[in-house]
Amino acid sequence: MGVARALTTVTVVVLTGVAALSAGVSPARAETGPPAEPGVPAGFRVAGRTSVTAGVERLDLVRDKPPLSVHVARIAPDAPVSLRAVLSNDQVAGPGPNGERTSSMCQRVHCLVAVNGDFAGGDGGPLGGLLTGGELLRSPGPSELQLSVGDDGTLSAGELSWSGTLVPTDLEPLTLAGVNVAAAADGVTLYTPAYGPTAAAPAAATTVLTFRTVEPAGAVRVRQTTMVEITGLTEQLAGSAAEAIPADGGVLAGRGTAADALRSLWARMQSGQVSSRALVRLDTRAGVAESLGGGPMLIKSGARWFADAADDFTRGRQPRTLVGWNAAGEEWLVTVDGRQPDASVGMTLAEAADFLLALGATDGLNLDGGGSTTFVDDGAVVNTPSDVAVRRSGGDVIEHLAAPGQPVVGHVERPVTSALAVVPKNEVSVPPLPAETGGVPGVGQALSPAAGAGPGTDPGSVPGGGVPALVVPSGSGFGGVLRLAAVLSDLVVAFALAAMALRRRRRRAGPSAARALPA
User: Fold this and answer.
1) Is residue 43 included in any domain, yes or no?
2) Does 506 reside within a domain?
3) Among 251, 346, 391, 484, which lies 20 to 30 A Cα-Cα from 447?
4) pTM to 2 decimals?
5) In a domain, 71, yes or no
6) Using the 8-state DSSP alphabet, how is residue 28 labeled?
């Protein structure tokens, strides 16, 4: 009886401790806060509420422990607005600087609310694809995760399938390998004026075919057949000057067997076997109106949906930009400030996923974060970006994080590759404003990134970056309390099994042996 009583006591203590841990407080210091406001995650309070337009509300949420500052745009299913992907400077990789501030993109498309969009690729353009206004400005890779807006306004995430062909009059089509991306090693890549004034500089021998659009005039659009006129062929060597892209046409760049196909087409055209006119066709998945890259997927069908990688990008508390939605048609654009210990420390990916779930989203994904995280309302930045201008001898420079003792001039909005903007559904035809790529208002105009301060060193923006972050142990945020409960429960079971074995042994040994055991 003494052993059984002791085991019962251990079991009660263990389960009491587990229950307290599950509640997030110690057993002796349990606290109950005010009930959460509907639509506001537990632990947060509303510091500000703004009606942006009918059906669109901005919430400024704060939390004390840990300190967090979060901005949320909540979009009702019947709101008279649309989501639009915006490309920085309206060019993928034009002459520098490639990036544009989110506030500038919002202003020039006359948006209501906007957040920063896709990560930066190696050429300074978006890492993933970008489809907007009927134009495929950049094709996505086969494994790129895309946030897509349907023709009916619904959001979805996944690969964006696309295809492209050039069909001459002899009906021997050429398949396109990419649009406004790095030239394929053995394929035909299309460059349009949206790439920039010139195509990508050749890294290997490349054959280039130029064309102008004939009918309909203007840009080559998806799900529309465009007649073009082939105007010239150029052979390029590695390192030679990039080919200029006609303002009223485009460039087809081929390498390997694709270069042979372009030469063959040109030869057939010169001999009169085919006309100089051909048809160009681009198609994307049916029903998709807008699309930009992002990732990883955070939640899907109401559950977490990403890998628990042991890196700062995943487990570090970083500034985050998030998008969430549900089957009812509700949508959320979210930014989480970070790297500000007294104001907002940021979130891990697990915390970001749980936050979206608490808002009411069932699906959602992560966009570019770190110093890129920006929330814009009516053209003005309302969050506090984490990049800072610090004073050094010789001038002010931009850092991802100020070193101890460095005088901070102010927080700086980082130029980014794209933005996700909320615009009125019935847009009035208003000329767009020019892009702003100069200095940041309120900060010195001669700022330049410090050594190592590019986006590639920012772990909130690129995994493997070098900025210190509050790293949460692998269990935290990924069911750590449940794992602890499971371990303690295993101990209880082990004790119980030991007691059962002890009782059996006492029965087999007889009454005299049982009396010899301590009570």
Assistant:
1) no
2) yes
3) 346
4) 0.80
5) yes
6) G
